[in-house]
Amino acid sequence: MPRRPRTSAAPRRGARHGRHGRLGRSEVVRPPLAPLDGRIDRFDLTVGTAVEFLRGTWPELQDVRFEIGAMPAFEATDEVPRWYLDRENRRIVLFRLPIERLLPPGHDDNAHRRMAIESAVFRAAAEYVGREPWDLGGHEH
What we know:
The protein is α+β, with helices and mostly antiparallel strands. It is 32% helix and 10% strand.
């Protein structure tokens, strides 16, 4: 007996959907793998958001490149730097590991980590332009 085409009042979903409205999830996002929104992604996003804000507030940062490095080179007797200013090449390098990991005890949660990242971006940018970090509203030169 020949098979008759199925008729339905419901519109047919696109080919990317299975019969329950979606195809199987890919292996990339299926547990036990971590979601793509990991600590490094959050760090990059937080830096990017702070940089956008600063560029809108301090025009002298428009042409400055903000870069992210993992860990700076430093002597064992030195304090671990959280950023490096390279005025000659118009860039600021923020070091992710010291910014994220050198938090006071009891402050190693997402909110405190985000505040530490934003604070480092603001302080590095302020040092670069020769202002105080809390001088965000002032445009006098």
